[in-house]
Recover the amino acids of this structure.
């Protein structure tokens, strides 16, 4: 299978480690084979150098020139509704579920496990 | 007029027990009705309802007894884990329960010979009827508040860590 998601200016990436975890940023420039300059004006990610290991390349892309300034990038992101397109992807939905599960408190966790048990009971009863 | 000195204070003037200088501060702003998880001792893992702080600094909790077998219990807050769940305990009256409630009853004294012969059949520690009544009275309104709700099942459930769960990552 050929690589389709290139590391290029305009590639929308998801930060998966560090203080900006779970946020979107756009690759603006490439430093070397390991690091890129990332900027996310609409999502609160400051213009900074990120190692590629901390990023997940999404299928979304914005058309900007290499080294585009934050203001230009912001306009491009807003014109293309990148945030809305992102929310529709399955990766975004799965991330939301993961974060929801991590935020459940002790009582919520019990409610979930209780519902799962009841559902399993009903399914087994119907299967008989 | 010469001031009269009380060199030897009589029985009536015996000083009352001092208030503790630094009463134990409870952590995390727990309120009456908050569900706590007991972390050590006989009832470890059980979820119980916090009632009040006793004079000695320990906290008073109850199962309720009918739900999970935990009676009125006195324990240090350090041995508990606070959850964010609060159960309605408006009708509960714990005013007359204090540290004296938990004082051990005096052992039956007998001659050493008598005790030796009795050792063969050990008497099970019995709970006095008074304590059973107090337990019932305190638990009554809590049971009414959770009757038929998921909260009742929740209190019956025992807390454990499951596969993949990390205690430091869990939200309580």
């Amino acid at each position: 299978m050929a690589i389709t998601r290139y590391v290029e200016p305009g590639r929308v990436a998801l930060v998966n480690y560090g203080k900006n975890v779970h946020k979107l940023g756009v690759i603006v420039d490439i430093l070397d084979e390991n690091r890129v300059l990332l900027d996310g004006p609409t999502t609160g990610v400051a213009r900074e150098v990120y190692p590629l290991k901390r990023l997940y390349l999404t299928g979304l892309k914005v058309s900007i020139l290499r080294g585009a300034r934050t203001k230009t990038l912001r306009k491009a992101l807003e014109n293309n509704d990148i945030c809305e397109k992102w929310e529709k992807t399955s990766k975004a939905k799965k991330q939301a579920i993961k974060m929801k599960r991590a935020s459940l408190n002790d009582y919520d966790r019990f409610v979930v496990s209780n519902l799962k048990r009841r559902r399993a009971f009903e399914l087994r009863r119907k299967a008989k | 007029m010469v001031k009269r000195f009380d060199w030897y204070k009589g029985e009536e003037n015996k000083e009352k027990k001092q208030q503790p200088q630094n009463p134990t501060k409870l952590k995390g702003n727990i309120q009456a009705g908050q569900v706590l998880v007991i972390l050590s001792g006989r009832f470890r893992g059980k979820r119980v309802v916090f009632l009040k702080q006793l004079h000695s600094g320990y906290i008073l909790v109850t199962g309720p007894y009918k739900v999970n077998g935990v009676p009125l219990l006195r324990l240090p807050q350090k041995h508990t884990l606070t959850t964010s769940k609060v159960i309605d305990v408006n009708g509960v009256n714990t005013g007359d329960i204090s540290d004296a409630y938990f004082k051990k009853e005096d052992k039956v004294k007998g001659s050493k010979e008598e005790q030796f012969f009795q050792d063969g059949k050990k008497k099970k520690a019995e709970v006095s009827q008074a304590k059973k009544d107090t337990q019932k009275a305190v638990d009554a309104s809590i049971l009414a508040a959770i009757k038929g709700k998921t909260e009742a099942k929740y209190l019956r459930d025992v807390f454990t860590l499951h596969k993949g769960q990390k205690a430091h990552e869990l939200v309580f």
